[in-house]
Design brief:
alpha/beta; 37% helix
């Protein structure tokens, strides 16, 4: 494993993508590693338990859970009294921005990561966004990442105090991969996907519904990768 001794912050939802991203950061030799999760009033708060399990498994230097209440704004099936779509095909998932989109979520999350990065003196931030097998979220696109990175390198003391010096880097190693390719990459790095949680609408025991967009994309990814899906689904 290379040791570049550059610390990094990884945004960790406890899901499949962010966990693979954490494994990649570790494999690339980033040390120490920090992970950052958010309790934002999401209906699928079981993902926070998964994020803690993942952080412990990878032995990160510090795992923080930031509490913000995006239910105050609502307008998302994840933070409001809106039904989570079920049993949709891929064309329906990508036809429009779905109601599971949380307004400005990745902008908010990256802003918190940027603030912590300044405090820690960290210039590398990892984010598990994906622009291929995803549900049409506008804040998962390469254009968004590039725009935010430009803002980050204009708006922080750490970068403006040393003009021409090294700036922030937002790593998005999964952005051009299919879900199957992400799973295969994780398998190469011995990621235990049983630790992770992806479902938008789990039952009271935290079992995945198997029918929301996130579950369906996860199922498809494991099937195409030829790897057994370790997910606990409701009714099974």
């Amino acid at each position: 494993m290379p040791r570049n001794q550059r610390p990094a912050i990884v945004l960790s939802s406890g899901g499949l993508d962010s966990t693979t991203c954490l494994a990649i950061a570790q494999h690339e030799g980033h040390a120490p590693l920090y992970s950052l999760s958010f309790d934002y009033g999401q209906r699928h708060r079981f993902e926070l338990d998964a994020a803690r399990r993942v952080a412990a498994h990878f032995g990160v230097a510090e795992h923080r859970v930031i509490t913000i209440d995006l239910r105050q704004f609502g307008k998302s099936a994840l933070t409001d009294d809106i039904a989570v779509p079920k049993d949709r095909d891929e064309s329906s998932m990508s036809a429009d921005i779905p109601v599971t989109y949380v307004p400005a979520r990745n902008t908010i999350f990256l802003s918190y990561a940027l603030a912590w990065a300044e405090v820690l003196g960290v210039r590398d931030v990892f984010l598990g966004v994906n622009a291929i097998d995803y549900s049409g979220y506008p804040d998962c696109r390469p254009e968004f990442i590039a725009a935010f990175l430009q803002l980050a390198n204009l708006a922080t003391k750490m970068t403006t105090a040393s003009p021409g010096g090294p700036g922030f880097i937002i790593h998005t190693p999964l952005i051009h991969l299919t879900k199957a390719q992400i799973i295969l990459r994780g398998a190469e790095l011995d990621v235990d996907y049983a630790l992770t949680h992806s479902c938008y609408d789990p039952d009271e025991q935290g079992r995945a519904c198997g029918r929301c967009d996130s579950c369906l994309l996860r199922k498809k990814g494991f099937a195409e990768a030829g790897i057994a899906d370790p997910t606990r689904y409701a009714g099974k």
